[in-house]
Structure formats: structure tokens, C-alpha cells
Write the C-alpha cells for this entry.
Amino acid sequence: MEESRTQKGRRAFLKAGGFVAASGVIGSVFTFVAKVGAKGNARRRALWIKTVDHPTLGERTVDYKRFSGNDMFALYPQLKKQREGEGSLEAEQASSAKRLAGWIGERKPGYSLPDYQLSAGAWTLMHSTKPGTGLLSWTRVSISTPAELETHTYTASPEEMASRVKTAARLYGAGLVGIAPMNEAYVNCQAPQRDPQSQKDRQPIDIVFEDVDVPVVTETRHVIPKKMKWVVAIAIPMDIDLLSRAPTSLGDAATALGYSHSAFVVSSLAEFIRGLGYQAIPSVNDTAQSIPFAIDAGIGELSRLNKLVTPNYGPAVRLCKVFTDLPMAYDKPIDFGLVEFCKKCKKCAEACPSRALSFDDAPSFKTRGPWNNPGHKAWFEDSYKCFEYWQKVNSGCGVCLASCPYTKGAQAWIHEAVKATASIAPASDGVFRAMDNAFGYGKQHDPGKWWTNDPPSAGRE
Amino acid sequence: MTMMNEAGTFTITMRKRPWWQWVLATVWFLLEVLLLQTALASMKEEEYRAATICWIAVVVLAIAGALVCLRQGRSRRPDESSRPH
């Protein structure tokens, strides 16, 4: 009896070993073959990423409406007061500032003055933007119009236009680019009532669609022309080396750099499009929800994080977009097996220090607070808990992004092979999740070691 | 395999490997390359646990491959009775 059990155990072990070895080899060969077609052409996807007619997650009901625009930055102060009483926000801010000063003083790894200022420096470009003006101007900044160059508006087939815009976006720094149709339901009703930069309340700014030729920006209204039927959705990869030090100022620097790159990319691309003779509105986190546009544009799928996960960079991306009236061929949503993987994995939910992410087996319509837009299926998160944790660690968090099995450096071939195998054989999801843990992936890297590394230029491998 | 007999002449014995041995050898080689690349890349990515596991796997697989090779070589050596006189 005992012997038979040992034999069975050995057989199971050999079977598992054989399965892993075969998956690795088959996946590698498949990935290599799949990548041959994609090499040298960033617009072509690997063969294991399928295009589909409808997004894999995000089924909507009639309750789905335009979001208020009040994200957690705008909501947190009032929610904090409601939940913990008057003065709680100020007390939290004071203790947070004191804690930060202590960490900087004692040179805590990840919070030393160079660490903190590295992040602050990376925020510079993003913090100097304001929707509708300057870099994020809704109208021409400085580029010459075709008329000024004594020529006509540039015209070509929608496919060629899409190709040129994607190539330009890649040059400016986009990691992934796709074209989605404009969907007014994804555009916020208003700009946040609390200014994200100054953190002061301001009068509501309505975002409306009208039959106008050019976008209009006033103190109380932002007008998007109805003829803007195309959205260039863009994903900017984050520096994984920095992100793996989260939650610290170093991890925050990855987010900061991602946002500042986003501002640069969308402002440059909007000017390029205007230079061809069309209208363009650049947008980072403002004006509209970036995630549904990115899903429709085939950049990634909605995940357990309630954020986008891309096949190439996992969730370690920052999203931005450009609205335009330049006619382009639309892309389709993609399916690389993520939703099935998320159902089994739950690694992000386990890693989340504030327990803000859902442990539910399947996505649902049940929202967790006013920060969620109801009427669509998702794994909704508790953003209040998440944001509260940010105050404790004096920086953004990002642990969920770093812990996702799809967030991997670009060095090892095996990562690509695992993603490809998970895409074509969902039965392997559980094995890969277990292996991800066994191999120690997703744990925080030593913040003290970052400065001795030789970082890639602009954080991009 | 080349062997010299008592008369001082050489006998060259050539044996064809079965197809499945070539397949196994190819899988073994690809796996070695994959594991070695992962080990080196994991060190660069500061994933030291992954790197350690991959290094161990590389060494174990290399030893296993060498042992199998050695065993096959021995089992294929012709015995005295089969030698020509």
C-alpha cells in the first residue's frame, strides 16, 4: 500500500516535471516562431494574441453612464471626513509629513533624499500640465498648419493613416498603440471638482460634445467636437526595475516617469496630427477613462486589478490617449487568456498591503464605492483603502503592479514562453501561478541597491 | 565506434540511433539553453531565487545528460564474442 503510494507520488512528480519541461520547450519554440513575424514591426502582434469582436471582460448594462470625473484624489478628503470625522484628514497629513521627514533624515532605503527627489524630479513634466492649456492644449501650440506651409490637409487611406500615427507615437515613446472608436460613455461628465495639482476645490467644468469645428476650452466648459470619432490609445511602459522597489519613493518614480512620458507623447502626437491638418485633443488621466479606450483599441484586457494588463508589459504601463477627427482604421480588442488566468491567480489581491483588491472568483457588477463607475462587469477595488495606504507609505504604492505574473523584465525568454503557453492552454494557469511563487517573483527588490545599477536610458529596456 | 583487434586491423561499427533518441536529445539541448538563458537573465533582473533554481536545474540536467550519454556508450560497446577473428 505504502509502496504503491510512493510509486504514485513519484509518477505524479515525473508527470509534473515532464509537463513543465515540455511546456517550456514547446512555449519557447512557439514564441520564437510567433515572434518571427512580429520582429521589426512593432505594430504586428505575436501570434498567441488573438483579436476578438468584443472585450473579454466589461459586459455593460443600461446603468453604465458617463463617470462623474471625481476620482480618488477628489473624493478622498470628503470620504475621510465622513468616515473618521472633522480634522482626521489634517491629522493624517501632519503625521504623514512627520514620518516622511524622519525617513528622509535617517536615510531609510527607498526614502533617502536622493530617492525622494528622484521621484519628485520625474513628476516635473506631468505636474506642469493642465488639461486644455500648455502641453495639453486642445488647440495648436506651435506647429505649422498645412495652409501655412502652402499645402493641403494630408489624406490617405484609413489604414495608412493609422499606420503613420502609430509609427509617430512609437517614435515619441509609446510602448503600445491602438486605434479605438470614440465612445462618449467613456468620457467624464466633468473635470474633477478638486484640482489635482493644487488640491483646492474649484467650480465644476462640464465636458460636452457639440457640433463645432475646433475644441473649445473655457473656465466652465470643455467642448469636444462631435466629429472627433477616433481615439489613439497609448500605453507607456513603466521602469520595472524601479517598480520592483515599490512601495517606496523609488517605486513612485516609475509611476512619475510613466506619467511625464505620457504627457510628452500625447502632446507631441497631438501636434503631429494638427500638423497634418486635423484636430487633436491630448489627454493623460484627465477628461476620459483611459482603460476602456485601451481595451477597445486592443492594447490589453481588464484584469483583477480593475486595471489594464497588456500582454507585453503586464499592468506596468501608464495609459493616455489622443482624440482626433483624423480618419483611421480601428483596431479590435484582444484576448490572450488573461481573464481565465486572473480567476485562478489572485496573486495581486494577496500581495496588496491594504487588502483593497477583490478575492472574488469571478467578476461581478458589484461596485465598492463612488470611485467605481457602475454598470459594467469587473473585479472592483476599494480605492479608499488603497489611497489611505498611500498616505502611510508617503508615496504611491504599485505593489499590485509589481506582483502580477505578467509584469516581468524583458531579459528572460521564458517569460514570453509562459505567457504564450498560458494563452493557448489555460489548463496550465495554475501551474504557472505556483511556479511564479516558487521562483520568488513579485517580491520587493532591495531599494538600497538601485543606485548601484546602471539604469536603461529613460527607464526603458 | 572504432576498435582495433588482435591482428592489428580496425573495425568500424556504426549504429543508427532510433528517432526518439534524437528528439529527446533536441529537447534536452533546448531545455538546457532555455534554462541557462533564464538563469543569466534572472541574475540581471535581480530575481536571485529564480536564478538559483535555474542554475541548479542547468547543472542537474547537464549531469543527467552526461550520465545517459555515458551509459549508452557503454551498452553499445561490442563484446569480445562478437569481434571478428
Remarks:
- Confidence is low (pLDDT under 50) at residues 36-42 of chain A.
